[in-house]
Every structure is written in C-alpha cells, then in structure tokens.
Amino acid sequence: MKGLLTCEALTKRYSGVTALNDVAATLRPGEVTALVGANGAGKTTFLDMLSGTVGPTAGTIVLDGRDITAASAWQRAELGMLRGFQDGELFPELTVRETLRVATFRTRRYSLAEALLRVGRRRRHDRASNAAIDDVAGRFGLTRWLETEIGELSLGMAKVVQLAAVAVASPSWVLLDEPAAGLARAEVDQLARRLRASADAAPEVGYLIVEHDASLVSIAADRVIVMAEGAVADDFRRGDDGFRDLLQRRTHAATGHSSATPRPEVTERPSEPSGEVAAAPAGVDARGIRVTYGKFEAVHGIDIRIEPATLSVLVGTNGAGKSSVLNAIVGIRPPSAGSVTLDGADVSRRPASELARRGLVLVPSGRGLMAELTVAETLRLTRPRTRHPDTPDPLELFPELGRRLGQRAGTMSGGEQQMVALARSIQLDPRYLLIDELSLGLSTAVVDRLVAALLELRDRGVGLLVVEQNAPLALGYSDHAFVMNGGRMAFDGPSAIASTRTDLFRPVFLDPDSDDDTP
Amino acid sequence: MTIRHRGTIRGTGYVAVVAVVMLVCALGARSQPYLATVIATFAVYAIVATGLDFVVGWLRQISVAPAAAMAVGAYAGQELVADHAFLAFVAAGGAGLLAGLVIGLPALRVSGFALAVYTLVLVLAVELVLGSVPYFGGTAGRAVVAGSLLGLDLADPEHLLLICLGLLALAILTYQLLRGSVVGISWRAVGQNARMATSLAVDPVRVRLRAFALSGLFAGVGGLLFAIVGGYLSPDQFTFGLSVQMLAMVVIGGRGHPLGASVGAALIVVYQQVLPTTNYNDIVIGLVLLLAAWFAPRGLAPVLQDVVLRGLRAMSAIAGRRRGADHVDLAGGGSR
C-alpha cells in the first residue's frame, strides 16, 4: 500500500529509563489514528521519533517502503511528514502570511539567486504560494489575520495557524501533539470536524494524533492506539467493540465514580458568617483574578481561597488556566485584575520573593530543580540559619533523601525529584504551600508517598493547594476541590461532592489505573 | 486588497527614501572632500551592519566577528585594488564569504552567548595572524593605493563616495529582496523557532551557513572599502571594538528592519564626528542609548518609519481635503 508508515521494535531509553519499549505499528494513509494513554505513557516520545525530533535507541521506521530511521527532522518534513507541536509554537515575529510562506518552502522553493534577481521560479512560485495561502487562510478563517504577527494572536488562534501551515505544506502525513489542548469546547468540536473532513477529502493523507480529549477522538478517529508504560496496550478500529467501550469507559473514568452512588447535593460554598469577615480570617484569599497573555485572557475573574490546615486541589484540563492562577497568586506573573490577601493583609502585586518570605511558597511545575546540583546543594539553597523547633525537617518527612544527598537532581527519578522539590520548599517553613502538578508522570505508589507527606504538613497547620490534571486521583486525596474549565471556576466545594459531579469533567483520557514513572 | 496595497507602497517607499537620502548625500558633499569621506565611512559601516543583520536580526545570533570578515576581505583585495579594482572587490567578497562560513561553523552547535565567545576568539585570532605574519605587512600596516572602478577614481573622495553609496543601495536592495522571498522568510523562521522551521522542511544547518556566508560577503566588501576610504590598512583597525560598534548599529538602528543598520550607522558616525571633543561625550551617548533601549526596544528605524508614515498620512489628508478625498488612500496607505 502506498504511503504506509510502519515502525518496528522502536525503543527509546533516557539514561536508564525506558520511555518507549519495542513498539511496532503500521499506520495507513486515509486514516485518522489517535494515540491515547496516560501522561508519561510514551505518546509524545513516539511522535517525536516518527517526526525525527528525537532519534530512537533501537528500531526502524519505514515510510512508503523507504527506511527513514536515519533521516533528520527536516528531511522527513520534506518527504511530507509534517508535525505540529503541543503548545501551538510558531514564529512570534513573523506575520501569519509569512508563517504560511515558510510552509510553502517544501513544495515551492527557489534559490538565493532567483530570490535576489526576481527571475526563474521566484515569480511563478510566489504567485502560486500566495494563491494557496489565500485559499487555506479562507478555509481556516484566517483571512483577516494574514498581516498580524503571531505574537499578537491567542493560543487558540496560533494553533489554528499551525494547522493551516501544515495544510499549506500539502503533507502526506500529519503528526499532531494534543491539538485540542487549551481550546474551548466549541473549538474542539470544530477542530474534530475539520480533521474528519480533511481526512475524508484526501484519502492519500494519513493522520496520527496524540490526544486526551475523548470527544475529539470519537468524532475524528478511525483507529485508536492505547499506550501504557511505553508500549502499545490496545489497538482498536472504529466499529470494534473495544473502540466503543474505550470511549464510554473513559468518559466515566474521568470522574472516578459511577453515577450509581449519588450523594446528597449540598451548597457548594458555605457562605461565611458575615460577622467574622471583618476579623481578617487566616488564609489566602484571591478574588476576581484575571490573567491575560497579550490580547488573550486565560483566566476570566475567579475567586479562590486557601484555608490553613486544609489540603485543596485545583483540577482541570490542559489550558484551563490552573498554572496561571497559581502564578498570579504568588506574584510570579501578576494578574491583570483582582486582589490577593495573605492572612488579611493585601499582598496583590507584591514580588514572589517577598511572598515566599511571608510564608506563601510555590513548587513550580516541572519541579524547578537545577539538574546539575546535588540534593545536599539544593537543600542548602533554602536551609534556614537556625531551625525553628516547629519547622518540619525535610529529611524527617522524606528519610529516603538522606541516603541520596550526594546525587545530582538531574539523574533522579521523577518521584525523587518531586521529593527534593517539596523538601526544598518545606525548609522555607511555609504556612501556605502551592504545588503545580504533583502527580504528573508518577506511579501511584510514589504519589501515595508524596500525599502522605502533604497530609502530615496539613496536620501541622499548613494550607495546601495542589494543581492536578488527574481529577479522580486528586479528588481522592484532598479535602476541598476547585474545578476550572476554560478559565472559569466550575466548582468550589468539598472533594467528595466534586467526585459525584459527572457534569464537571470533560471526558478525557486519563487512566486512573496507570502505573508509570518517568523522570 | 488594501493590505497588499500597503505592502507595495512600503517597498517602494524604502527605495524612495534611500534614493533621496543618497542623492542629498552625493550632492551635499560636492567639492567637500572631508564631508565626502565621512559619508563614505557611514556607507561602509552601513553595508557591514546590514550584512550583520542577517545574523543578528534574522538568525537571532550574536556574532562579534564582522571585524574579522572585514579584515579578511580587506587583505584579500588590497593587492589587486591598484590595477584591477573590480577583481579586488570580487576577491574581497569571496574571501569575506569564506570567512563568514568559518564564523558560522560554531553556530551549528552553539548559540547565543556561547557563540559570541567563539566568534570573539576568531576576531582575536585574525588580528594576531595579520599582525605577526610578515606577508601581511605586520602591525605597522601599509598604505592602500586604489585604482579606478567602473570609470570612477577610487582615490577621489567624491567618486569613492558614489561607489560606497551605490554599494550600500545594492546591499539594502539585496536585503529587501531577500526579506520578502521564501528564502529570507525561512531564515527568519529558523531564527525564531528552529524546531518548528525544521518541521516545515527547512534545513537549519544550510540556512545558518548561508546567512553567515552572506553576512561575511557584505563584511568582506565593506572591509576593502573601509581600507580604501582610510587609505591605510593595518591589523589594529579590525578590532573587537569595531565588531561591537557594528552590533550596536544593528541593535540601536533596529534588528530585522531594512533601514535599521543604516540608521544605526548614521547615528554612530554622527556621534564620532560631532561629539568627540567634549568630555561628557560618553555620558551623553550612554544616556541616548539608555533612552533608545527604553523607548524603542525594537530599534529606532521602526519608530522613525512610524513618524514618517504618520507625517505622510497627515500631509495626504490635507492634500486630499484640498483635491477631494480620492487620493487619501493611495498616498497614506489606507486609514486604520
């Protein structure tokens, strides 16, 4: 079959950790294949190796009967394998038209001399390119934006431009990494229908899409490959029972509860007795928080409260605005509107370093460790000169770190790195600890271990707010839950109640049973 | 349609601005050899800086080696320039191009600050080699005797000025033609996001080498002109300091703007000519730089362009009111 993309025994190891193990697959043009699985299952690694962004440790990749394992990323793109990246990344200071012009490079290029002398292919190709660009821009609704710089566009628009660029390049294979992430519900449906329509219109083009969003998969995909722990776990086609079951199962799994055990509905936010408000209650209060990036507003005015001695979680999908909220509260990226009070004192727009000194500490996503520093050096950064007797000793909380003091952080597993990051922040003696992505890519055993430490901190009176993508997991271990959706607060109440609210969660592919641990 | 329209007006606008400025320069310097030399120096700086912008503005890399490429070009052409001036310029351009390739090699592996350090080593090496190998005339340097090119006498400041301005016009034209072509756009794309450009079938290695080579070609020709304008050639003319000056021109004038390098070069030359006698000079220029960085982070050229366009629009609005509204859109480039 023409245009077949196959791989055999594809394996990728990163310093001892196997991200992808002996994967074999045959992908057919004319099909939309969705690649699903939990975070860390190896989906993006698989995509990276197919597109040539990352070289495999072992295995072969064959496109249309030709071994392309050794071909570089641009050579594969030249062969027609076009790839989009997760965060809609593009060229910030090029206009939309110029960006689409780059995409015409594959099919309508000309030499430096032709460019300078305006002879030969330049005129012909420029004319054809502009016609193709105008056509694609029309189809993607970008005509108005052609002369706008990419940096001025919202994330959603940038993602559309990326798709348009792929379309302009007339690909034979399209590889996309989470095209729906960060898009609003309506945009996801539109994207899914557009993908489906493109695939139906051009049966010679193949699509491989890493996606968490179940509805996009159910609308667009012909085939679903489920990955777990770096290997292919399941492979279903539309029409298979497995395909239907998978979509249904995921839809329910997202909440972690069956609707068979309804709980009594209570008021979502107990209103504060008005007499106590004036007494400046302890806690962190963020009110009316808005966060904007350029012209794009990511968070549309939300309230959030961190109580002392409470473990709260903030859940929502990619792009819901969770990290933006954390960064706004601690002052790393101040909000465009709204106020933050810390134990009654207004700390809006105070620098992050001051807030950290005053007891409001953030553990950033990705753990923010310096890979070259050892555990001991990392901990020395925040070690107080004299330890207050009440301050928790991080090595008491994580005794396993005591044996690893000489190890460099970059060589540790993801779980150990998260422990180091937590230990470093705990030394600052926080009264409020904010953690961006606690469980991302970690095994359940490790998460249990980390949660145990957080509960101990809570019992010592620390107020915690943990951002999680994995809602069922987060709701299982927390006292209080905030659920964000598209930059708005969808729920604010006890975690036990959030678990019963199936309506809150978009059906997503997050496997609560998954067990994997990548650094 | 209005957008396309504005694009062409902008393109021809640059040509008009460049032509007018050059005509004024050439006429203004008639029978004033000193002024002619000063303007020629400006043109030489602007040629090299325009070439450097391929690296700084498009690839977004820092190279402090343009002085090295200038030196290589100047030394390659200086023997020939008395009798075969045209060949001398070809040799200077070719040698500069090769020098650019060598400068660009580390850019395939490192970028940003590390690249700047590597290129710094190259500048020092070239200066050292030229100074210590007897064939090149040693540190004492030598006089440059220039012949004639295309019927113009290179020893005559006014003729030399015409050649310098002509080459600068050619440099800006090259820049502008490349900027609008898929070639130039792909170079800029590599500078802004190499990973994404790669996934659109652009080979970043080829792009980087070519941009550095073209930048070297401009520097090589500029280097030979620099020696002819000075009438003298010695290794200590091509110092690290000269490279930093070139970088400053590009950054202050406006990275990625066709006239940015020229605006920056004009500023530096004016500074060297008008202000060098006072003691507070460095403080004044430092303050100007600080203000420029604060108010025009993308450089002065885009700001000037904005002012000029606004002026033109206002003028055409007045003219339009006098003659009826038809002409407003044509001359002003659309109302926004």
UniProtKB/TrEMBL annotation, chain A:
Pfam families, per the entry: ABC_tran
Claim: Transport is one of the keywords in the record: yes
Region Disordered: start-end pairs: 251-281
Domain ABC transporter residue range list: 5-254, 284-511
Keyword ATP-binding: yes
Sequence intervals crossing the membrane: none
Keywords: Amino-acid transport, ATP-binding, Nucleotide-binding, Transport
PROSITE patterns for the chain: ABC_TRANSPORTER_1, ABC_TRANSPORTER_2
Similarity comment: family membership: Belongs to the ABC transporter superfamily.
Protein name as annotated: ABC transporter domain-containing protein
UniProtKB/TrEMBL annotation, chain B:
InterPro entries: ABC_transp_permease, LivM-like
Protein origin, superkingdom: Bacteria
Record CDD domains: TM_PBP1_LivM_like (cd06581)
Keywords: Cell membrane, Membrane, Transmembrane, Transmembrane helix
Membrane-crossing segments per the record: 12-29, 35-55, 62-78, 84-108, 115-136, 159-178, 211-234, 246-271, 283-301
Primary localization: membrane
Compartment(s): Cell membrane
PANTHER family (alphabetical): HIGH-AFFINITY BRANCHED-CHAIN AMINO ACID TRANSPORT SYSTEM PERMEASE, HIGH-AFFINITY BRANCHED-CHAIN AMINO ACID TRANSPORT SYSTEM PERMEASE PROTEIN LIVM
Protein name: Branched-chain amino acid ABC transporter permease
Organism: Pseudonocardia ailaonensis
